[in-house]
Amino acid sequence: MGKRAVVIGVGHYLPERIVTNTELEKTVDTTDEWIRTRSGIEQRHFAAEGEKTSDLATHAAEAAIARAGIDAGSIDAIIVATSTPDLTFPSVATMVQARLGMTKGYAFDVQAVCAGFVFALANANALILSEQANRVLVIGAETFSRIMDWSDRSTCVLFGDGAGAVILEAREGAGTSADRGILATDLNSDGRHKDILYVDGGVSASQTTGYLRMEGKEVFRHAIEKLAQTAETALEKAGLGTGDVTWVVPHQANLRIIASTARKMGVGMDRVVVTVQEHGNTSAASIPLALSVGVANGQITEGDIVVTEAIGGGLAWGSVVLRW
Ligand code: ACO
Fold first, then answer.
1. Alpha-carbon gap, residue 272 to 269, rounded angstroms
2. 31, 97, 149, 173: most buried by Cβ count inside 10 Å?
3. What angle do CA 200, 22, 149 make, to 5 degrees?
4. Residue 281 is a catalytic residue
C-alpha cells in the first residue's frame, strides 16, 4: 500500500497562428524539404504579439481542469516548467494561480529546458508522496519563438510555441506496477555540456534576453545515447520492461531522434505518440502537448503504461513511467 500520483486530467493550448515550412521559406534561407527530412517538422504555432507564456499556460490549465471536472480552488500546488517566462520574476506559476482565481496553495517554476516537464512531473510526484500536496497542476509552457535568432537557419526553423498541462491527484495504490499513477522516475543532468545548447543572454550575465544557440549535431549525439538509457532505467525501477510499454511519449524535438530512441528501446513506431510534425520543438511544452493530443485522438487510454523521456539544455534529461 502507498500513495500514487494519478493523472486525472490533461489539456493543451496552441496559439492560433500556424507557420508552415513554406511560409518560413519566404524569410529564412531554407526549404520545406530540408526541414522535413532533417527534423520531421511540417509546421509550428507562434504566439501572437502580446500573447505570453502565462496566457498559453492558463489556457492549457483550464482545459485540464475542465477535463478533470474539479474546481481550481481544490489544487494545492502549481508547477510550471518553462525557460521562457513572461518576466524574470515572479514565476509563471504564480501568474497562472492568480488567473485561475486561486488564493491558496503554492506555485513555482522549474527550469530544465526541454526536460522541464519530466523534472516538474517528478517533483510533483515527490510532493504527493511526501504528503505536501494532494492535487498538483503540472504545466509545460513555452514561447521559444521569442528567443530565436532569425538569422540562424540551423535553429530558427526547429522551434514553436505552446502549452500542455496535467493534474495529478493522490490515490491509494497497492504498491505494484498494476497501480495507476506515476510508477517510477529517473532524472539526470551534466553541467559540463552547457556550451552545446544555451541562450546567450540573461539577467546576471548580460541583462539581455539573448538567443538560443545550439550545436545540433552534438545535441543529437547525446540525445541518441541518453534517451533510451533513461527510459529503460525508469522502467526497470518500476519493475517493467520495454515489452510492457503501451505508449512512448517522447520530447518532440526531431523525428529522427524519436525514431532512433524507439528503435534502441525495441518499441515500434506504432507505439510512439508523435506530434513534432505539427508543433515543432516546443521545449518543456512538448510532452504534455503530446499526452493531451494522444488522449484526445484515442491513442492513450486508462490503464496504459506510458513512458515519457526528454533531454534539453544543461544537459538535463530524464524519464517518467506511469500507468494512465
Ligand atoms: N535549411 C537549409 N539548410 C540548412 C538549414 C536550414 N534550416 N540549417 C542548416 N542547414 C545546412 C547547414 O548549413 C549545413 O550545410 P553545409 O553542409 O553546407 O555546411 C547542412 O544543412 C547540414 O547541417 P547539419 O547541422 O550538419 O545538419 P544535421 O543533419 O545535423 O541536422 C539538426 C541539423 C536538425 C539541427 C540536427 O542536428 C538535430 O536535430 N539536432 C538535435 C537538435 C535538438 O533536438 N535540439 C533540441 C534539444 S532540446 C532543448 O533543450 C532546446
1. 5
2. 97
3. 10
4. yes
Residue whose C-alpha cell is 526536460? 115
Domain residue extents for the chain: 2-173, 181-323
Q: What is the pLDDT of residue 1?
A: 73
Residue whose entry in the numeric block shows the C-alpha cell 486561486: 102
**CATH 3.40.47.10 is held by the domain 181-323:** yes
Q: Which three three-digit cell numbers place residue 4? A: 500514487
DSSP reduced 3-state for 60: helix
**If we measure between CA atoms, which residue out of 249, 257, 314 comes closest to residue 286?**
249
60 in contact with ligand 1, CB cutoff 6 A: no
Fold of 2-173: Peroxisomal Thiolase; Chain A, domain 1 (3.40.47)
Q: 74-86: per-residue pLDDT in tens?
A: 999 999 999 999 9
**pTM, two decimal places:** 0.97
Q: From CA 74, how far away is CA 143, in angstroms rounded?
A: 28
Confidence of residue 310 (pLDDT cuts 50, 70, 90): very high
CB atoms within 10 A of CB 152: 14
Q: Given this model, what pLDDT does residue 203 score?
A: 97
Catalytic residue among 45, 59, 251, 279: 251
Indicate if ligand 1 lies below 6 Å from the C-beta of 218.
Answer: no
